[in-house]
Every structure is written in C-alpha cells, then in structure tokens.
Protein 1
Amino acid sequence: MAVVSLKVSIISLTCCAGCVSSFLNAGEALLEILSGDFDIVYSPTFVDLKEIPEVDLAIVEGGVRTEADEKLIKEVRAKSRILVALGICATHGGITSLGNLSSVKKILEKEYSLPVSRELPELEDLMYPICNFVDVDYYIPGCPPMPFLIVHSLKSIVSGKAPIRHQSVVCTECHR
C-alpha cells in the first residue's frame, strides 16, 4: 500500500516564531515525517504562496492580537480538516498576552517615545488564544513545545491516535 502524504499548512499569527523553530529542531525525526507523512503545501516560512490552499492538517502557532490574525485563523479553519494549536500563544495567549496588562496606547507610547514614522498593524486591546475564534482539534502546549513532543503528537494525529498528554509537571521530576 502506498503511503499517502497529508497536505499540511503551517501558519504563524502574532508570536515570536519559537514554535516553528522548535519544530525545525526535531532534526532527523522531522525529516522522517516530511519524507512520508507530510507534504507542506503552505507556510510563509518555507513556501512562497499567496493563497492558503485546502489542507488536511493546519498547524498554527501564535495568538490573535490583530484583525488580520482573526481573519487568517478563520480562513485557515475553513480550509483545513484538522487544526492543531502549537505552543502556549495558540493554546492560551502565551507570553505575548502580557501585553494585556496595559492598554495598546500605553504600550505604543512606551515603545515608541518619538512619533512612529511607519504604519503599525492595528492591535486589538487583548491577545487571545485561537480557540476563542475557531474550533481546535488538538493542542500541543509549551513555550516552545519540545521537538520530541511536537513530532510524537503529529505522528499520533496522522495515525489516528490521540497524542499522549503529560499528566505531571516538570517540578515532579526534580529531586530537590
């Protein structure tokens, strides 16, 4: 039986891109996935396409902080069979949601004490996880998620199994 590759898109919303970097750090395990299970057909990081195609699996990092993010996540959901939230920004708002502690006006005044000479994206007042806007099928937590966890989770999803869920926190492993 021939191996059928899933068409995959990798999308970044408001984030630091650490989750995609962690995905790339999977090394040989990543090459194994890409050679058999996945065919990345859209990712601004890897593939230069203007239109988001219909895909079997969409992997989304980052949260929603702009109107463009909201529009993009809704389009991605409409064009994907399975949607995976990758990293704490996508699953919970993440470190970028620390901006929720101040108003957008205060943040911009602090960061740009002089008048801004270039146009900035229109920021919403709060940072949101993607599940506030669309249904999410799987969550891969972490900031960024460990490469082995990303690979294991994606392999599980491809094979139709539920990914493992760690039942403890790192602190339980400490012997101090």
Protein 2
Amino acid sequence: MNDHPFSVVIPARYGAHRLPGKPLAEIAGRPLIAWVWERARASRAEEVLVATDDLRIAEVCTDFGAEVAMTRSDHASGSERIAEVASQRGWPAERIIVNLQGDEPGIAPGLIDQVASGLLAHREAGMATLACEIHDSASLFDPHIVKVVTDQDGYALYFSRAPIPWHRDELLHEKSRLPSAATFLRHIGLYAYRVGFLERYLRWPPAPLEKAESLEQLRVLWRGERIHVSIAVETPGPGVDTPDDVREVARWLTRQGSGDDQRDA
C-alpha cells in the first residue's frame, strides 16, 4: 500500500442528536476527535485531515496537531463534506480516500489500511468496506447493527438493519441462538472510495432502499455499482453515540493502555 498513497478524512460536526458536541467530548482526559485522529495517524495513510465547519472543533484539532480542512455548513452527509475537501485539495479522480467516522476511537489502524487495500485490489468496485462475524442473536436482531450479505467473491448483495440472511427453518422457531451452520456479518462503517466515484455518487438522488433502511450505501447498490466487503482482520473497539458510550470507551481505552502503541504524531 505504500506505493499507492491514500488519504484519510475524518468528518466532524458539532451537532449530534444524542450527544451534542460529540467530537469534543472528553474521554480519558482528551477530546474524542483526538483519539480518532491518532488511530488514523497510526495507519499507512499519506495524510490525515479533519473536515469540519465548526471553529470550536477546528481550534481543538489544531491545538493537538491535526491538519484541519474547513468546509461549508450545509452538507447533509460526511460524504459531501469529504467531496468538498477533495475539491479543495485538487485530488485526482484515482486518489483513494478513507472515510473514518469521527466517533470511532476504537478503530484499529490496520483496518484503515485494510479497507484502502481492499479498494485498490478490486478495480471494479466503486467502494470498499469491512465486516466482521456476528456471534450472538441479540446483535443479529438489533436494528442499530447493520448486517451485510455478500456473493462468493465478497461483493455486497445487500445491507440491512434486519437479520439477514433469514434462515427460515431455524429462525422462525428459535431466535435466542444463532443457527449453528450459518454465518452472519456485521457491517463496519469504514469506507474507501476513489475521488471520481465519490463525485459520481453525490450526483445520484437518494434511492428508495436507502430511504427505507436509512443506509447511504444502498444508493450504490441501487445504481448497479459494486461494493467490496473484506472480513476485518480484527474486531474494532467501541464507538461513541451516547453519554454512556463515553464512559464505556474510557474504560476500554484504559484497558488498551490508553493508546501507548500509537505512532507518535
């Protein structure tokens, strides 16, 4: 991957429904966005940028050494914000960008490298992403956990908040445990795409399936484009959506040694 440089962009907005000011939430003595940036910096990315429209976030990020790209405030998604950064930077159509959510302090740097490598290895894919196995029925039936099914070559067939694939005979009668011979995949919300694909994607209107499931990646499948899904080389740590998650992540980071193995920024 060193011969094929890629960029990581971390979209960060101040407003969040369940946790306003989330990027600046203090976790183990540091803002959340700092933990995420350090994870990205420990990957093989040639550059790591925080993309925001909020001066409070920009100031904090600059203080701990991050490079910040200021963007407009009218973006409806992180993908739109990243597209503006690509335009500002003049990145060519073939440039690979990894979209790392700003609430994922537990993402492993190796997963960032893996998703970029997955896109590089599959030229026919518009996007690449990751998944890991589900081992408990509670996760399978949790609508907040996105599931994915793929074809034999690892290309996504569908993403859903519902339990897929539906093993009719087993799950119809028993939902407390998973069928022993089945494999279920949890989607990890880490994406890689090329600049040219991102520009094309943003010209498409939201698709009916996307609206139904509230999953942007279904716009890609609706248009007949391909998404490659690799099985993650390791399971990511916890993300942050609620105040309870802040406490859980702080405990998790403490158990991990507070990121002592991260590359010096």
Protein 3
Amino acid sequence: MSMPFVPSRRRVALQALAAGAALAATSARAQSDPFDKPRPACVLTREQTEGPYFVDERLDRSDIRGDAGGRNARPGAPLVLALRLSSIVGASCAPLADARVDVWHCDATGLYSDEDDLRTKGSQFLRGYQASDASGRVRFATIYPGAYRGRAVHIHFKVRVPRQNPREEFTSQLYFDDALTDRVHGSSPYIGGRRTRNDEDGLFRAGGRALILDVRDAGDGYVAAYDVGLRLG
C-alpha cells in the first residue's frame, strides 16, 4: 500500500475539532431508531475473512475515533454505526444480548492503527468493542472509512459470545454504496482519486452485496445500520 499524504498538525487538529462537533450533532439525530423494521429479518449474515489488521486492543468504548482517552481523534465525515444482533434458531430469531462486538477500520487516508508496517504502532484509533444490550444492539461513533489499494471501502467486525462458547467467534465485513463513497471521498481529508470499487474487490464479489450498510444522511454526518443474524453452537 502506498503511503498517503499526511496533512499538517494544525490542519489535522482543526479537522478533528470540526469532526467532533459534527459527530455530536450526528449522534443526537441518531438517537431515533436507525432500523426500518422493528424486528430483524432473521437472515444469516455472511462470514468474511478477518484480514491482516485485527488487534485485540480490548477497548470497551462506543466512541472509537481516537486513541484511548479520546486523544488524537481522526478527521473524517462523522458516522454512527448501529448493529442489531440476533441469534437464529430454525426459522425464528431472538435478540443476542451480552455479545462482544469489535469493530475496526482504516482512517480517511487508508491507515490502520497499531501496525508496524503502516508506522502507526502504539496508536489505537478506529478500534473498540461494545457489549450488545438486551435488544442485541451496539452503537459506535466513528468516521466514514477511507480507501487503500486493493480493497473496497469497508468496516471489519467480530462477534464473540463468551457465556456460550469462549472460543467461538464470527467475523465479517460491512460495505458502502459506491455512489455514496464517491460523494464522501470527494472532500478533505479523504485522498480521493482512483480507488478499488466494490465489484473490483474479490471479497466483495464473494457475498459483499448482502453486507452493504443501510446509510442515511444525518445532516452533518451519516448513520449506518445493519442486522447481524448468527447461528450459534
């Protein structure tokens, strides 16, 4: 992966402040239910590869924009990610509570945190987990991911249910509509230019169309929702 342009510290700081204010407004709008249907469709979610950049940071937090303690928040279009987990048994499903859901993704310039080969070792931005509530929901405050060579724009997630089987885990990836990404990536701090589109990504072609997020414009940012259906045991 080619190294991206790195903006000045002052510019990054100003962008981070602006992103923080915008995300607060987006989060306020996102308090309403982001799901179209009151009940999940009980559809099994496709599993996809973990990829090379998962780090088990064990950061229990809903705001994952920066390092631990909120330092060094990454600039970008504010995004609230809402997931609703269900355990599927036969043809019916029930909310999956107390599941640990990790999410991780790259920043606006295509970098993942805490990686030696990306020169980000020691940072913790855009990583974290939440435990699902009684209705099976988790919510993360983050930014719209950037892009890097060879992959469509995506967010990784991993689900673990320690109370059922500490060793069992489910991993997959979530994608965005290309037209929306074109708009988001058309402004700073996104690098823009040629990127890998969904149908050019081999992983997306292997079931990614069923993993596209439902994204809504929240004024100063976006709210993305997805129903995760799992068959455990």
Protein 4
Amino acid sequence: MNRLQKYIIHNLSTLFISIFLPLFAIASVIFLIKLATYTAVIQLTIWEMTKLYLFVLPEILFYTLPVTFFIAATLSLFKLSNDNEIVVIFSLGVHPKFILKTLFKPAFILSLLLFFNFLFLFPHATVLSSNFVSYKKSEAKFNLSASEFGHKFGDWLLYLGNENGDGTYGNVFLFNKNKEEEILIGAKQAQVINDAGILRLKLTSGEGYSYSKDTFSQINFETMFINDTMKTDLTQYRSPLEYWLSNDRAESKRHMMITDTLLSLFPLISLFLVAAIGIVHVRHQKAKVYLYLFLGVLIFYGSVLGLQSIFVYYTIPLVATVWSLITYMLYRKIIVARF
C-alpha cells in the first residue's frame, strides 16, 4: 500500500509542477504588466520593480496553487485510468476511498499553507507594497526645475536660479510668510537630501532676513539645513490580527476574507469531485475531463463570488457544505456504485 501511495503521489507531483509553472509564469506576467503602470506616475529602478513583484508574490501563489492542485489531481487519476492502472488497482480489492485518503494529505497541507498565506503573509506584503508606492508617489511630487516659479518646500516658497550638473542648484531663494513675520533666505547653492522619507534642503553660503512690524534682523551662514517631512499616506501595521480587524478598507477585506477562506478549502472539499471526474473506465465511458474541470472551477468560483452579496460571511459554511454534499453524491453515484 505504501508503494501504491508513493506511486500516486509521484504522478500527482509530476503533473502539479508541469501545470503550476506555466500558470505561475502567466500570472507573473499579468502582475508585472500591472506593476509597470506605476512607472507612469513614479520612477522605479529594476530593484524597486523586483521588490514590488516580491510583495505581490503571495497573491500570485494563492490564486494559482488551488486551481493547479485541482487540475493536477484530476489529471493524475485520469492518466492512471487511461493506462488501465485504476482498473487493476480496483481489481485487487482496493476501495476508491484509498485514493481519497492518499490525496487527502497533500490537499490538507496545501490548505494549511494557503490559510497561512492569506492570513499572515498577505497582510504584511500588502501593507509593505502600499506604503512603498505611497512613499514613491510622495517622493515624485518633489520634482524641481530651475528658473521656474511655483515650487514649494513644506511651508516655504522656493525658487532655483540654475541647476548644476552635480545634483545641486545655484542662486536659491526661499520665502515664508505668516501673520507675524516674513522670512527671506538666499543662498549661492542648495542640495536636496532624502533621508528615509525626510527631505532636507542643504543651503550653502547665504543670507537670511526676518522682518515684522517692529523688528528687522539679518543673519549670514555658511551652511543651513531646512527639513520637511513628506506627507505620505502610510498604513500603520503591527500584526495580521490588527490588519483584519481594522476598519480601513473593511468592505474589500470582507470580500477577501470570504473568497480566500473558500479558496483555501477548495483542495480539500473538492477531493470527491476529483475522483468523480478523474476516475473513468476508458472502454465504457467517454471522458470529458477537461470540460468537467472547466465547469467545476467555473461553478465553484461563480458561487463564491455570486453569493457573497446575499449571505455575506454565511457564504463560507453554505458553499463549503453544499459543494461537499453535491460532490460526494456524484462520487457515490459515479465511482462507488461502479467500482
């Protein structure tokens, strides 16, 4: 029996890898095209594009692994049926439930990995990706051009006389006005320094003037720093539990929780359907395995997405229970009654 289990698992793993790699490559290309749209707003290096891809990697794996297992498990049994090995197995007195028990272990492990993926890894990766994009957008807002009016640096109006080739600017003027006083600063040279989200303007060799109704003052300086913290809409994140329980994007997270829970259960609750579709008698049955695979995935995903607006969180036990009962009845009628 151990050899038979290893043989079935070997067939499953071979098909799983051959199906997973193309699906993963297609999903990766789609997500990379989506990430490339960010370059219309922000500038990204190859390393930054790689970081964004790593942030969406848990999502890519989550949406490819359940479907891959369902297809691979079904086709592995279908291959054994075409080679008449299933008939030999049943002729030796092996019950169909032995095959289900063999497939249960990898399905259970995969479901655990999927739950861990969307409950723990996904919140972390989503927050990192969102904060990274927000940071880059805020950084992109501070694009300076020499000899142009309208630049702002925090509360300061900024004018740059000319741009040097080494990343510095010459003939720089800053102006700040409030109810009590006005401040004017002029410098021969300025350099913008980005230090972990804090923009720092380094002024060299300049003068500063401050005047109000009662006073007028002047200072000369060799070096002056003016700081401005970029206003970035960063998501605060401490733990996955806090992420799921927070009210931020509550509607989206509710949809995600329902969908991802059922997709995590999909490998387990579809084992009866895997056996009903994959196990055939090639002499007496016309196999339509690919049509049934397509219909199975379509009906399950359609039920998950379509019933959420009506039953909300009750969709999870409803779909899981009904799907298990229907597929079990098909398994009893098609497989157990015949083999």
